[in-house]
Amino acid sequence: AQSVTQLGSHVSVSEGALVLLRCNYSSSVPPYLFWYVQYPNQGLQLLLKYTTGATLVKGINGFEAEFKKSETSFHLTKPSAHMSDAAEYFCAVKKPGGYQKVTFGTGTKLQVIP
Amino acid sequence: EAGVAQSPRYKIIEKRQSVAFWCNPISGHATLYWYQQILGQGPKLLIQFQNNGVVDDSQLPKDRFSAERLKGVDSTLKIQPAKLEDSAVYLCASSLDVDSSSYEQYFGPGTRLTVT
After folding, report:
1. Nearest chain B CA: its distance from A43 CA (Å)
2. Short-list A94, A88, A103, CA closest to A5
3. What is the pLDDT of residue B52?
4. Are A3 and A102 in contact (CB under 8 A)?
5. Residues B56, B113: contact at Cβ < 8 Å?
């Protein structure tokens, strides 16, 4: 079975500081990995994804993540936090092939302090 | 391109009542998903359709939940009778591909259900 662990249900950073949200996964095969953002009272929006190829992937709003197979990690980073980044972030994993479902982590709520 | 539409956005019912949620996916998306998101948790897949056939409903509480996707487009999720623990946000999502490097799910705004 596949799973995702997000370390830290709440993370606070100062505006302009580095954002680092941690995600570790478990999968029996090389997975597809995703980061989604959810603003209050809205659905989830894809930030970035890793499927194949380059292990450092860049997404929207200045976010990026690096797939590290040896560490089974897919941490999300942004060099400088903006107030508008305050939201909840979900890491997700999917096995390639067929109708494999997407499994989400429990989420990390990011607070940006002015 | 229009996104995934859901209605209603909010619903409050008493336990043992029934409720239905509607979802209209992005045009041309063959795969449709219903997720349950309980406060403080990530979305949990309830059911996945490919066109109008069910691909995965292993986590759907079939004694009270049902879903259909007639004609492979719109979908309805029903709960009957509702329990207090069904209070959650119900998210609908759709995707064009099932499995490729371009795979992506697009989510609707969700329906927030409160059972009292």
Report:
1. 4
2. A103
3. 84
4. no
5. no
